[in-house]
Amino acid sequence: MGLNGKPLVSIISAGMSKFGKHDGLLAREIFAEAVHEAFTRCPKLDPKGDIKALFIGHMGEAYEHQGHMGAAAADWAGLTGIPATRTESACASSGAALRAGIYATMSGLADVVMVGGVEKMTHRTTVEVTEYLAMASDYPFEQWHGITFPALFAMMATAHMHEYGTTEKQMASVAVKNHYHGSLNPKAHMQKEITLEAALASRYVSWPLKLFDCSLITDGASCIVLTRPELASKYTDMPVHIIGSGQASDSIGLYQRKSFTSLNATKLSAKTAYELANVKPCDIDLAEVHDCFTFAELMAYEDLEFCPVGKGGKLLDSGETRLGGRIPVNTSGGLKAKGHPVGATGTAQAYEIYLQLTGQAEKRQVKDAKIGLTHNVGGSGATAAVHIYRSDQ
Amino acid sequence: MGLNGKPLVSIISAGMSKFGKHDGLLAREIFAEAVHEAFTRCPKLDPKGDIKALFIGHMGEAYEHQGHMGAAAADWAGLTGIPATRTESACASSGAALRAGIYATMSGLADVVMVGGVEKMTHRTTVEVTEYLAMASDYPFEQWHGITFPALFAMMATAHMHEYGTTEKQMASVAVKNHYHGSLNPKAHMQKEITLEAALASRYVSWPLKLFDCSLITDGASCIVLTRPELASKYTDMPVHIIGSGQASDSIGLYQRKSFTSLNATKLSAKTAYELANVKPCDIDLAEVHDCFTFAELMAYEDLEFCPVGKGGKLLDSGETRLGGRIPVNTSGGLKAKGHPVGATGTAQAYEIYLQLTGQAEKRQVKDAKIGLTHNVGGSGATAAVHIYRSDQ
């Protein structure tokens, strides 16, 4: 393709609910909170007429015994009437919504498109949530045999430890970093720093992954508003352009993969996104990557080519991915500390990059950030979506 | 917008599994059957490289305890690697996939896009299926109180009978017509004609709807392949152009609607589709409409403006919507006789129109058919998608 960095679409606004526990609220009500912020941030956007389509990532019907979330969410957000479609690609459901929204915006059929995501999880027990999340893995060959997501990622982590010498301490250090970032984000589920000792002392969930290596069960919603680049100035003086977009699939079953130490869907989608954007990994100023488990962040460093293969742990050790480093990763707190309301995660990553590139990230602002990246993974890597953002301010 | 009948995209191939019972197969395997036909029909399409994105409608994770159907279906269809996203808008899941695929194709990011849908239902009990389908309605205000889909459509049918004098006999006659059409379709779930007497004598499911007023619990899959109109000749001499596309939403709860006798989402999406296509309802040569219940077909006649409001029953009585009439409706057998594997229905409608407009519908061929329409509804009408097709042969 090769659009050489020409904006595909522009983000003109964004919204996110507080991530955490929202007792007594329905998913659609939490989504309305995110939408309200998006309209408040962009007064020139008409809540009653400008949005021409909605794609909303939502992973699980089981949580609320509720399908048809596109229509339900549109209705509660005051958008009744517009085309409203739920996308589901497991934990990459709103990464896929973002991709679908980019298609819609570029098609010429819809000038302004909202994409977002939502999940309401905390009213369910941990056992129930574990079962619902497992639906993102293969039923006959994985779920049936009792494999859960901590176990799937533990197998990958183990392979990486064996192959490259990655350590439990390095994984725990991802949690320490992301909790520090989360402590600076008033919308994060967890806003307390943790110590390396506490992370290492937490109980094993699935060896080598411990409780503090796992992301959180969280309620939350997020959305961003897209338009064609030539229309952005009608709505805002501070657009953020999406200059690269890649999405890719892989076998749903881990057992079918050639490698356990990298995700091919990440590599494929990153390749497409980098090419479209005409940027190199070293051009990225900050990134939100899919740290559903701490190990996954280290693997993402390698698959996104922030460092050579096998050196993810070393990049973490160097401090370069911490706020103040060369390429801060997960300044929002990531899935680990901000929380992981699965359907909402992809566009919540985009929300963080939007804040950072428009200088609105307050205590966790990355200085002179111009180019950002988001990386959203579904399941054990059967889906990945990578997007690259640029601010021209 | 107003593209005045200029093709939005072109269909270059299509496939559909046999609809019926597929004991022992997974949804992804049934979908692979549809994909195999699409590749067989179009030898110039490279199964290993041409398809650049997949959107697949799939309604229920509960049937197979399986989410993440985009990746799973892509993998089993030999398409691993491409962006593959599940869309879910209840029974309009693949109508929404079609719309998403049109966006993708028109965006310029993907030259050839597959859209489709699948559902595997018959291994579940009727009670289970009724519960899973109910997730398309509102949980707190409908499901919670025990309202099922037959009950929701029964309330609409009752209102229409009261307002316009529509009769149980007219509804039963829809079933007779569609079973006649189904008897001519070797892929239909039910291929036997039924009598009016048998339909009227069947037991009530939810008054005034009887067993023979209800569509079928069916396994099945369907897909169509889209490209930009200027690329179509590379793949086929018989493209079918999509010249109109509309999708709309409404409140998920029936109780929120102003009218029980029409679906506003159908009216909105039809308006958009007719305008884009620059055709009038009287220009339509044949249509596949969403007859989840016989009554719904009569209501569709009115909402799509095939007849004046309140005259749906009279149009049916006239015989004009039967094969050989002025505007044959549901020549495939419809959801009533062909079957309703919910996620597959929207693109199965498109498959029938594709066959008809390319002269491949055999015993049920509509003579000189040039312009066709599909109408796919989600839930009790919270989603509708209307598409208009033209053959230039």
Account of the protein in words:
The structure is a homodimer of 393-residue chains. Chain A is of the alpha/beta class and 393 residues long. The first copy, chain A, has a single domain (9-125, 215-391), classed as Thiolase/Chalcone synthase (Peroxisomal Thiolase, Chain A, domain 1). Helices cover 33% and strands 18% of the residues of chain A. The first copy, chain A, has twelve helices and eleven strands. Chain A has a nine-stranded mixed beta sheet, sandwiched between helices. In chain A, strands 5-6 form a two-stranded antiparallel ribbon. In chain A, helix 1 crosses helix 2 and helix 6 (168-182) packs across helix 9. Chain A is globular and about 55 Å long. Chain A starts with 8 loop residues before the first strand and ends with a strand. The mean pLDDT of chain A is 97. Chains A and B meet through helix 2, strand 3, helix 3, strand 8 and helix 8 of A and helix 2, strand 3, helix 3, strand 8 and helix 8 of B. Strand 3 of chain A pairs antiparallel with strand 3 of chain B, so a sheet runs across the interface.
List the helices and strands and how they pair.
Two copies of one chain form a homodimer.
Chain A: E1 9-16, H1 27-41, E2 53-57, H2 69-76, E3 84-88, H3 93-107, E4 112-119, H4 126-134, H5 149-164, H6 168-182, H7 196-201, E5 204-206, E6 209-210, E7 220-227, E8 240-249, H8 264-277, E9 286-288, H9 294-303, H10 312-317, H11 334-337, H12 345-357, E10 371-378, E11 383-391
Parallel strand pairs in A: 2-3, 2-4, 9-10
Antiparallel strand pairs in A: 1-7, 1-8, 4-7, 5-6, 8-11, 10-11
Helix pairs in contact in A: 1-2, 6-9
